[in-house]
């Protein structure tokens, strides 16, 4: 039974996540008006887009220069042959995980708190995967030959090596991008129809008409739609687990100390969900405030996500500890020395940024007060993003800098090119995201309408009550 | 830079018309270099030349005074590789790194393109006609003025006929005999050898000695004839438990010192006290106090000397009393009965006869200062750089009214000259050398001159012919004719001898008597400080003459592993006391001056000693030399020891922190093995206890029955399987189920080498077992005997030369530092980022000495691609750019590589190198082969582009060439019929290459040596490189008879 209770004070009973409601939304018209209203461009939006595109421009300029002048301008210090680009690749793939988790898995589990945040998370997923997919290409020595990783028929009879985890990556990332894009789009169809109906501009209306595939809101369409949606949710669910597992194989399949570990797939998946939720916060907390949609993404929603973050944080923290235990238990000296060097040696600062951001700060979420404090959640989300970037840093760099051969131990510092491309990746991501939120509804209009209690939906529109 | 070279650029490649060593002497007829026909494309193909097939010319190396025999490989008229001449009695086919780098002198981009003449303050390009006119005019003027007797000719010391020829020529003009200058000659040792043994350089036979004691004689670095000495030393040490023990006495452990079993860290200048004690002239207590070493070390040394018959004592160095020390040690050799046994004067080399010393040059500087020298001619030598500032040589030189340089390079001395008549490179000219008393080593041009240079000998003949008075003395048209006319047996014999490069007999003209030498002047007394400065010639750059060759700049110093930089060695405890970290700048100040350079904390110097290498700090000499490092001579005063040698060590100095820090340009990551067993050793006494049956050679079928891990397996037989500190408990034994198959084949790789490679199978893919080249039957492999390896690094340079490896450390090859285009233009900037491309690197690990004690050990490991049978790099490559060839090679396909660099991540040996920039692309800033250095590139090897991986290929081009030649001859490939570049060069013969699956190759036997091990064996990579454990002889404080290793 849905809890109808209105907020009663600062401390409130924990609400089961399936039962989260949006009592401040009174009727369908209000939903259309409020969510549709977010689509009008504002000055702040243009400024934001300008910033994002400037960042992107920095990244494009840096990449162009790097392609021309050589990868040596990045900070690589052999044998640290992988650096910021691979770290950033894994970072964005990780970000891309929360979207599908929220939209697909939580859908299957009927977790109510997903309703108002899943669209943003899904869009985030698509753009994050688009960003991530660039980085292996940025990273390789001859980016103009990247298509050689794809097995395509050619007269030279050359084929890609299916033993290589990098080829698995190609499949994992492209599959994930395809499925998550399709899932996002299918879910959008009824919403696009709503916008189409409200749209006055004939050109835009025409485009929306095409995109909505002629949605007429018939029962038959709804039946097919819900079936398709359920099917795709089921189809995406294993991908959530498999994609980041495959990405983790890039490391786990190598014999490098610190990489060669069977714990990597679950550890990476937990980390991905963790970072993805943090990125959802980073995006949704300002949006709900700017658009005054706090009654859509309520504190109850955030509270529920915070519990997920707390849980995944503890999974990740547990994985960190297990890694140490395995290193000790293995009896392999290079492995043990590597872990010592990671946390107490050369890379202590990076490891402690990771540990503090990912395992210590999230413990604050045991406090309900903090779980419902949007300012804290936003700050924490930034720390978690930072911590998760550094988690990948700590995985990639310290291993390569401290391998079996002591003569080749080294250090690593990113260069301005690495930093520019990292900035560029955020520019690229936010450019797409900003463009998205002004073209398509960032909250699922139809699903919000579904949870509005019929009693209130039937009532005459009052409007304006926020 | 005040030079302006001609804009004509480099001539088109032209076919050489010189004699070939490939066999026939018949081409002797008509061998002039006039009227060159440009050869590609050929109109008429010259005899013996097949495009794409190498010709070899036997010649003589002139990179140092030793005069080793070389074979110059030429392809389509260009010299592409220098290798040792196996027929030559001095170096027996081996060649050091400096010799390998001769090619970069030949193709040096900063060589003069044409003669140069001073116009105002700058040297401007001119024509040979004008330059010769000016030269003959000045010669005539000197003669007319009557002051020719005061003219001076400085020649870079060399042996053979040229010095006598030169003196004859000078005499014709009424000029005095020339100075034969060699700034790196070991004059104190030479003087002592002459005095005691009667020859300048006797033959030292390490193999006969039971104990070798060196008093600062760095016979593996530069002292004397490094290649033959190294050959003899390695042969001696390879006899494992019967090898001579080696004690090094000196203030700094040089490369030679690091090869010693015991280091007696005597104070600089106190070695004589130690010798006095050994001769019984003083007490152990007094000697130990003077030398600052434990008394026990000295008494043990004395006891050892008494017991070891015969022994071999060597002395060298550049202290103020160096000659006296060398004489005392030579006398001690005599009294111990070593002369004629381990010291053999009769078989001595002549390379160091007649060298003029610093005393002569200082004396000359005084004369020049006083205006007593009207004209000076310099060929090869660079005294303006190699003489300390305090001698005032450069200023005095500048005062000479007319200065002629025959140098081909814009060095410091040439920069001061008025006329430059650039000489041919030794690889472009004729000559001879009497390397030992009974033989002549011939030098012939291997190719048409690269630039508009002329052999100085020919220039001198031409000048004489232009002078009516002396024309009659020179009927020959050039120096070659002159040589031939004096050669016993004439032209026919000469042509025949050329093919081999060496012939018994005497050179065309006996050498001149040599200069008597100016009186030496002892270094000025004075100078104070708590430290003593030791300055030593660099084993790589020599006295600085190698500094303009990028291969040598990039070759890490064998001891410090620093390149493209100067460094100051300071003991780690001293550094800690001073609060100095590696790279912090130190200033060393003596009475004569000071040098400032980054500190390198080194266990191998005494706590009260700092050491600096010579060779860097050029103000000129070309783009690779200029502005790199500091010249250690700036801290050295003008003073000589009795032999006339510059006193380089023993000066009192103060050491202070200077402002600044420069990261050390080093290739060293960690100098410690951390128990990883990379470089393993076995005590000499335990060599015999090593298991005779190698686990690696068990047949594959036997594996099922035996399940005991390697350690237990061996223990069951009552043998310690792995002796040495890192062979034991720290090592994780490999999976017992996966031993090597026969012929070092990997049991796990699923390819033609592995268990799935059923040679009878019909499913053989691309590689049929009966393929005519027999690839599938082979397993190319290598053994590296660490008991032989001295760490000299000749193999590294040989690899650069063979495989077109780019040098990356030049100041303009660095990366951008900011978006505005600022570049990291520190010398070695790329190497600071670990981006050196050396396919073969020489790792130098230290054992012991953690608390700073002198009793530490160094282990050298050449490390290259191990061509693993179960290579971790192969499965991770997404595009099959690296794959396994059926003959066991791990192959890298550059064209297929997209540059994911995953292979490098997964390589436990870290032997894969990435092209971060377009090092091989001429339009790039980082281009490593500026014209004409690119002429050296081996046409058999790809020059790699930007963004691809590369690594050691086991010289696959040589393998395929040998296979194809055998196939063309319808013969099987014979064992030991060819070898790879590193093994070919190795002056200690530590590297052996071949087919481990074929018993006719020596490598098949060596791989089964009980000392053998594979690096990181526990990773089951089944590598094809078998290292033979270093053999450790008792070190300090260990009973010489007992077993055990510290």
Oligomer: heterodimer
Please outline the major beta sheet of chain A: none
Q: Percentage of helical residues of chain B?
A: 10-25%
Portion in strands of chain B: 15-25%
- Give the averaged pLDDT of chain B, no decimals: 86
Number of helices of chain B: 29
What sort of overall outline of chain A do the alpha carbons produce when their principal axes are compared? Answer: globular
As a whole number of angstroms, the C-alpha radius of gyration of chain A is 23 Å
Assign a percent range to the helix content of chain A: 55-70%
Integer average pLDDT of chain A: 90
Which class best fits the helix and strand makeup of chain B?
alpha/beta
Number of strands of chain B: 38
Protein architecture, described:
The complex is a heterodimer of chains A (466) and B (1046). In chain A, 67% of the residues lie in helices and 0% in strands. In chain A, helix 2 packs antiparallel against helix 14, helix 4 crosses helix 8 and helix 5 packs across helix 6. Chain A is globular. Chain B contains 29 helices and 38 strands. In chain B, strand 3 and strand 4 form a beta hairpin. In chain B, helix 4 runs parallel beside helix 16, helix 5 runs parallel beside helix 11 and helix 8 runs antiparallel to helix 9. Chain B starts with a strand and ends in a 14-residue tail after the last strand. The chains are: A mainly alpha (466), B alpha/beta (1046). Chains A and B meet through helix 2, helix 5, helix 10 and helix 14 of A and strand 29 and helix 26 of B.
Please sum up the structure shown.
Chain A is 67% helix and 0% strand.
Give the key terms.
A: 466 residues; mainly alpha; globular; B: 1046 residues; alpha/beta; Dimethylsulfoxide Reductase, domain 2; Barwin-like endoglucanases; 38 strands; disordered N terminus; disordered C terminus
């Amino acid at each position: 039974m849905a809890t109808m209770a209105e907020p009663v004070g600062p401390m409130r009973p924990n609400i089961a996540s399936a039962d989260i409601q949006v009592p401040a939304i009174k009727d369908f018209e209000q939903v259309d008006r409020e969510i549709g209203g977010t689509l009008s461009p504002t000055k702040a939006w243009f400024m934001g887009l300008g910033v994002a595109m400037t960042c992107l421009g920095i990244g494009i300029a840096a990449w162009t220069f790097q392609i021309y002048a050589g990868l040596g301008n990045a900070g690589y210090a052999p044998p640290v042959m992988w650096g910021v680009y691979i770290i950033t690749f894994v970072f964005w793939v990780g970000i891309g995980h929360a979207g599908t988790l929220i939209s697909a898995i939580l859908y299957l589990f009927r977790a109510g708190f997903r309703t108002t945040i899943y669209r943003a998370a899904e869009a985030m997923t698509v753009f994050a995967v688009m960003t991530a997919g660039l980085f292996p290409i940025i990273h390789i020595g001859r980016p103009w030959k990247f298509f050689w990783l794809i097995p395509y028929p050619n007269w030279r009879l050359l084929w890609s090596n299916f033993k290589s985890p990098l080829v698995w990556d190609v499949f994992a990332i492209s599959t994930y991008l395809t499925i998550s894009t399709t899932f996002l789009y299918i879910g959008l169809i009824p919403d696009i129809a709503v916008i189409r109906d409200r749209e006055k501009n004939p050109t835009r209306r025409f485009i929306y008409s095409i995109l909505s595939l002629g949605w007429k809101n018939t029962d038959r369409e709804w039946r097919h739609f819900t079936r398709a949606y359920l099917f795709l949710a089921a189809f995406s669910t294993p991908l959530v687990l498999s994609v980041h597992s495959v990405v983790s194989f890039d490391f786990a399949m190598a014999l490098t100390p610190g990489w060669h570990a069977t714990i990597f797939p679950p550890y990476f998946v937990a980390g991905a969900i963790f970072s993805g939720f943090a990125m959802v916060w980073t995006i949704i907390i300002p949006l709900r405030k700017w658009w005054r949609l706090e009654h859509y993404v309520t504190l109850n929603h955030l509270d529920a996500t915070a519990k997920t973050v707390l849980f995944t944080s503890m999974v990740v923290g547990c994985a960190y500890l297990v890694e140490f235990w395995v290193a000790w238990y293995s009896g392999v000296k290079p492995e043990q020395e590597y872990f010592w060097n990671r946390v107490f040696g050369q890379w202590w600062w990076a490891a402690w940024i990771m540990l503090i951001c990912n395992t210590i700060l999230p413990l604050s979420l045991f406090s309900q007060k903090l779980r419902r404090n949007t300012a804290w959640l936003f700050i924490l989300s930034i720390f978690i993003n930072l911590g998760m970037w550094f988690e990948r840093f700590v995985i990639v760099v310290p291993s390569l800098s401290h391998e079996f051969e002591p003569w080749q131990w080294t250090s690593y510092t990113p260069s301005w090119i690495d930093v520019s491309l990292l900035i560029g990746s955020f520019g690229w991501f936010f450019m797409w995201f900003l463009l998205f939120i002004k073209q398509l509804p960032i909250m699922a209009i139809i699903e919000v309408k579904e949870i509005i209690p019929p009693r209130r939906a039937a009532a005459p529109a009052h409007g304006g009550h926020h | 830079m005040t030079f302006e070279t001609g804009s004509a650029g480099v001539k088109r490649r032209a076919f050489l018309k010189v004699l070939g060593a490939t066999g026939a002497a018949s081409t002797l007829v008509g061998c002039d270099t006039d009227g060159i026909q440009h050869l590609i494309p050929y109109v008429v193909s010259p005899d013996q030349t097949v495009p794409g097939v190498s010709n070899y010319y036997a010649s003589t190396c002139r990179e140092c005074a030793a005069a080793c025999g070389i074979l110059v490989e030429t392809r389509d008229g260009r010299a592409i590789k220098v290798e040792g001449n196996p027929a030559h009695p001095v170096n027996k086919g081996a060649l050091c790194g400096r010799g390998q780098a001769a090619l970069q002198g030949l193709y040096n981009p900063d060589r003069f393109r044409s003669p140069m003449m001073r116009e105002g303050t700058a040297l401007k390009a001119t024509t040979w006609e004008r330059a010769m006119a000016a030269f003959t005019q000045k010669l005539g003027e000197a003669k007319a003025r009557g002051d020719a007797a005061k003219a001076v000719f400085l020649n870079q010391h060399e042996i053979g006929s040229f010095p006598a020829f030169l003196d004859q020529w000078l005499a014709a003009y009424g000029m005095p005999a020339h100075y034969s200058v060699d700034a790196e000659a070991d004059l104190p040792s030479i003087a002592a050898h002459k005095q005691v043994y009667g020859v300048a350089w006797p033959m030292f036979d390490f193999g006969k000695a039971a104990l070798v004691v060196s008093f600062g004689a760095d016979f593996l670095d530069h002292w004397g004839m490094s290649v033959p000495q190294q050959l003899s030393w390695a042969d001696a040490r390879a006899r494992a438990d019967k090898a001579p023990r080696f004690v090094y006495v000196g203030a700094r452990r040089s490369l030679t010192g690091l090869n010693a079993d015991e280091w007696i860290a005597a104070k600089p200048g106190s070695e004589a006290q130690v010798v006095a004690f050994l001769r019984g002239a003083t007490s152990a207590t007094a000697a130990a106090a003077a030398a600052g070493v434990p008394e026990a070390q000295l008494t043990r040394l004395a006891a050892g000397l008494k017991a070891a018959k015969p022994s071999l004592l060597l002395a060298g160095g550049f202290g103020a009393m160096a000659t006296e020390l060398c004489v005392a040690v030579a006398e001690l050799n005599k009294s111990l009965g070593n002369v004629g046994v381990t010291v053999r004067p009769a078989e001595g080399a002549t390379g160091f006869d007649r060298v003029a010393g610093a005393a002569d040059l200082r004396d000359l500087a005084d004369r020049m200062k006083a205006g007593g020298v009207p004209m000076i001619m310099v060929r090869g030598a660079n005294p303006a750089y190699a003489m300390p500032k305090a001698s005032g040589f450069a200023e005095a030189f500048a005062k000479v009214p007319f200065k002629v340089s025959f140098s081909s390079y814009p060095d410091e001395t040439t920069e001061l000259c008025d006329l430059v008549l650039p000489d041919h490179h030794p690889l472009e000219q004729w000559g001879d050398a009497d390397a030992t008393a009974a033989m002549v080593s011939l030098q012939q041009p291997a190719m048409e001159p690269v630039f508009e240079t002329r052999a100085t000998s020919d220039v001198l003949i031409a000048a004489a012919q232009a002078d009516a008075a002396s024309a009659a003395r020179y009927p020959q048209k050039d120096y070659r004719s002159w040589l031939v006319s004096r050669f016993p047996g004439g032209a026919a014999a000469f042509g025949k001898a050329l093919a081999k490069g060496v012939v018994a007999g005497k050179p065309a003209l006996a050498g001149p008597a040599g200069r008597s030498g100016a009186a030496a002047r002892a270094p000025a007394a004075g100078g104070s400080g708590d430290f003593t400065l030791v300055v030593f010639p660099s084993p790589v750059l020599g006295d600085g003459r190698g500094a303009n060759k990028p291969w040598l700049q990039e070759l890490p110093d064998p001891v410090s592993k620093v390149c493209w930089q100067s460094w100051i060695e300071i003991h780690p405890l001293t550094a800690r006391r001073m609060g100095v970290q590696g790279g912090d700048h130190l200033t060393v100040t003596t009475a004569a001056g000071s040098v400032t350079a980054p500190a390198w904390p080194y266990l191998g110097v005494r706590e009260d000693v700092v050491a600096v290498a010579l060779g860097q700090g050029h103000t000129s000499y070309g783009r690779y030399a200029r502005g790199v490092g500091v010249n250690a001579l700036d801290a050295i005063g003008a003073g000589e020891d009795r032999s006339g040698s510059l006193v380089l060590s023993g000066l009192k100095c103060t050491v202070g922190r200077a402002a600044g820090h420069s990261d050390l340009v080093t290739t060293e990551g960690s100098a410690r093995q951390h128990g990883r067993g990379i470089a393993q050793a076995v005590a000499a006494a335990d060599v015999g206890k090593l298991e005779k049956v190698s686990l690696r050679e068990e047949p594959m079928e036997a594996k099922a029955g035996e399940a005991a891990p390697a350690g237990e397996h061996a223990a069951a037989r009552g043998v310690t399987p792995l002796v040495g500190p890192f062979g034991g408990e720290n090592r994780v034994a490999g999976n017992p189920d996966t031993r090597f198959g026969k012929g070092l084949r990997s049991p796990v790789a699923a390819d033609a080498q592995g268990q799935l490679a059923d040679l009878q199978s019909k499913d053989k893919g691309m590689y049929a077992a009966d393929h005519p080249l027999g690839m599938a039957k082979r397993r190319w492999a290598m053994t590296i005997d660490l008991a032989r390896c001295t760490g000299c690094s000749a193999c590294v340079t040989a690899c650069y030369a063979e495989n077109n490896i780019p040098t990356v450390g030049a100041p303009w090859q660095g990366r951008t530092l900011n978006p505005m285009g600022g570049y990291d233009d520190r010398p070695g900037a790329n190497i600071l980022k670990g981006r050196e491309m050396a396919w073969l690197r020489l790792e130098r690990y230290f054992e012991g000495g953690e608390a700073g004690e002198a009793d530490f050990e160094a282990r050298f490991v050449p490390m290259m691609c191990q061509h693993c049978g179960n290579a971790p790099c192969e499965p991770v490559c997404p595009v099959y750019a690296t794959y396994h060839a059926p003959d066991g090679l791990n192959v890298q396909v550059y064209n297929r590589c997209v540059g994911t660099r995953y292979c490098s991540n997964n390589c436990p040996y870290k032997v894969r190198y990435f092209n971060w920039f377009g090092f091989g692309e001429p339009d790039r800033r980082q281009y490593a082969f500026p014209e004409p250095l690119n002429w050296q590139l081996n046409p058999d090897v790809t020059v790699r582009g930007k963004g691809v991986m590369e690594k050691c290929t086991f010289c696959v081009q040589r393998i395929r060439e040998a296979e194809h030649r055998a196939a063309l001859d319808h013969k099987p490939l014979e064992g030991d019929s060819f070898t790879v570049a590193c093994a070919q060069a190795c002056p200690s013969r530590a590297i052996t290459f071949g087919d481990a699956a074929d018993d006719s190759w020596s490598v098949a036997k060596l791989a089964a040596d009980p000392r053998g091990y594979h690096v990181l064996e526990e990773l089951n990579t089944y590598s094809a490189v078998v290292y033979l454990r270093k053999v450790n002889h008792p070190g300090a404080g260990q009973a010489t008879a007992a077993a055990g290793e510290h």
